[in-house]
Specification:
Blueprint: H1 2-49, E1 65-77, E2 80-93, E3 100-103, E4 105-110, E5 116-122, E6 124-127, E7 133-144, E8 149-158, E9 163-173, E10 179-188, E11 194-203, H2 207-212
Antiparallel strand pairs: 1-2, 2-3, 2-4, 3-6, 4-5, 5-7, 6-7, 7-8, 8-9, 9-10, 10-11
Amino acid sequence: MTQNIARFRISRIIYNMKIQIKIMKKEVEFFRYFLTIALITVCATGCSQKKEVIPVSKVSIKTPFQELDSTVMSSYNGSKKTWILESDHIVKILADTGHILANPVKITVFDSLGKQTSKVLSDSGSADASMQVFTVWGNVFVKAQNGITVKAKKLDWNQKTHRVKSNDCVQLTTLKGDVLRGVGLDAEEDFSTWRFLHDVSGRFPNFRERAEKGGEFD
């Protein structure tokens, strides 16, 4: 009797253990299934949020330009030459028909009859798209055909109006040696006439002798 009871208890224990093992297996299978679903969900979410990244260059593309060395450029009005530009280095913007930057600058200017009126020298210069408005700067020196010389920091020459202008200090020396200085200049492109805008001063060699002889001061 006692042996039967012991066997029954052992069988009961073994049976309970088998049931617990089955339950644990089901829990493990459920955990694996849940983990698999979770991983698939995470991957799907990550893939749906991921976007294609279009590569963008950090270097911006500047306006295309052309560089010319030891160049001579000429402009004509019909058959008459209006100016000649000589420079060691010219940068020409390709998007613009005529806009250039040159250094150094040597310009020879001609009148409507094709006669040379003046020469312009400077460290740098530029022309607008029409190549009719020039700006020169840096040790500007002008030698007109009538003997007048001009020194300035900066000058603007407008071929349309045939005027030379400046807002800076300008020094003008005549053929007789008179030296005139002023701030701001408005002159004909051949310097046949000119005027300073303000702060005018001058030095006239042999002033008394010339005055007594009725000489002109120009």
